[in-house]
Design brief:
Elements lengths: L1 H6 L8 E5 L4 H16 L23 E2 L11 E2 L7 E5 L8 E4 L2 E4 L2 H15 L5 E5 L18 H11 L4 E5 L14 E5 L2 H11 L10 E5 L5 H11 L2 E9 L11 E7 L7 E9 L3 H12 L5 E8 L6 H8 L5 E5 L14 E4 L2 H12 L5 H4 L2 H13 L1
Parallel strand pairs: 1-4, 4-7, 7-8, 8-9, 10-11, 10-13, 13-14, 14-15, 15-16
Antiparallel strand pairs: 2-3, 5-6, 11-12
């Protein structure tokens, strides 16, 4: 990779350390393994200088945890010195599998709990790290990014709070609205997208997929996902369409105006494979309704690509739609917690993000440009060229 060869010639900004919170332990370990592999392959002659004494290690993970008292209160602990280190803190605010007890009662960790634990570990660093970087794949409260009524601005407040605590850079993925970074204009904020990983995973799962205008179409499930669909459409060279949601603004259910109907705008999709692209699946009802309408319009296969598979209502509805032929594949990343049951589903495909995350961390640790990482167009074109040649 071009970035890795560039990093071989440069010193890191400071010795690297990664604090993967409990919500990110397994993912953090795999990211660490990739970085160890990158640096094991570094040219030997580059490592003679004492400036590189902490460059090549067996692991860059630092042990940290947040033990709790019987009341449910907690504290953050870091088990080794991080003075002068370039510290990367990883947290998955959507990992609901973890729990703790409050006066003997079990309580599953919510995004609020994970965010509080992140602040505890930042506090435990006690201002001694050379640089603090937060990796939060699903940006905390990112769906509450703007005010339409007398509402709180939770995401902007969280970003300002992290900046006030000394965080230099915030790294996230597919932010619901990247303009939320305007709340911290003088601090680093990067939102990465996984289109290359989506296409790579899809082509592995469906090696007979034909990527051209006659056989494939990209669909945006709503107007908010248009920019993702436009990029996919342009980079693959196929047409796109979109649905828009007609809502009942006189009613509020679970904090939202219910969707009355999905209306479609676009070319004829009869006989074509279709890729639906969005940032997240929550309950899945909206996405699956779009998939059903696409199938009823004569589409061949329907592939759903989403950065965050939250599956808040379980997999029952997905199983039902798969059995009825409305969906063929659901492709999501491993940036957030996925229950073991997901991997057993015949339609489920994981777009692995560990190597991508490792490259981001290693690039930032060396203070090299991440422009190539942000723009995967060349890699997608090379992937599609190889797929066509096969």
């Amino acid at each position: 990779m071009q970035n890795i060869k560039l990093m071989e010639k440069l010193l890191p900004a400071a010795p690297l350390k990664i604090a993967a919170l409990e919500s990110c332990k397994e993912f953090g370990k795999r990211v660490d393994d990739y970085i160890v592999g990158f640096r094991q392959a570094t040219l030997e002659e580059s490592l003679d200088s004492p400036l590189y004494q902490s460059y090549r290690q067996d692991s860059y993970l630092v042990s940290c945890h947040c033990p709790r008292f019987g009341t449910g209160e907690a504290k953050g602990l870091i088990d080794e010195s991080i003075r002068g280190k370039d510290l990367y803190l990883m947290v998955d605010v959507c990992n609901y599998s973890l729990s703790y007890t409050v006066n003997g009662h079990p309580n599953h960790m919510s995004p609020d709990d994970h965010y509080q634990d992140l602040k505890r570990i930042i506090s435990a660093a006690n201002g001694k790290a050379h640089r603090l970087n937060v990796i939060m794949p699903f940006l905390y409260e990112s769906r509450q990014h703007k005010r339409t009524k007398r509402e709180s601005l939770d995401c902007a407040l969280a970003l300002q709070e992290l900046a006030d605590m000394g965080v230099d850079n915030i790294i996230t993925f597919d932010a619901h609205d990247p303009r939320v970074q305007n709340s911290i204009p003088l601090h680093g904020f990067d939102s990465f997208n996984p289109p290359y990983q989506f296409i790579k995973a899809l082509l592995r799962a469906e090696p007979n997929l034909i990527v051209d205008k006659e056989h494939l179409m990209i669909i945006s499930p709503d107007e908010g996902a248009m920019h993702r669909a436009i990029y996919f459409s342009n980079v693959t060279g196929v047409n796109m369409g979109m649905f828009y949601k007609r809502r009942d603004y006189s009613t509020v259910i679970n904090g939202k105006n219910p969707i009355v109907e999905h209306e479609f705008l676009g070319d004829d999709i009869h006989g074509k494979d279709v890729i639906i692209v969005d940032d997240m699946i929550s309950s899945g009802e909206s996405m699956l309704d779009v998939a059903k309408q696409i199938k009823e319009r004569g589409a061949n296969r329907v592939f759903v690509c989403t950065t965050f598979g939250l599956f808040t209502e379980g997999f029952g509805i997905f199983d039902d739609y798969y059995s009825k032929g409305y969906i063929d594949r659901v492709i999501t990343t491993n940036l957030t917690y996925l229950p073991p049951a997901a991997y057993e589903k015949p339609y489920f495909v994981v777009a692995d993000m560990c190597k991508f995350m490792a490259l981001i961390i290693d690039s930032m640790n060396h203070d090299v440009s991440i422009g190539k990482v942000l723009n995967p167009t060349d890699k997608i074109h090379a992937l599609l060229k190889a797929h066509t040649a096969d």
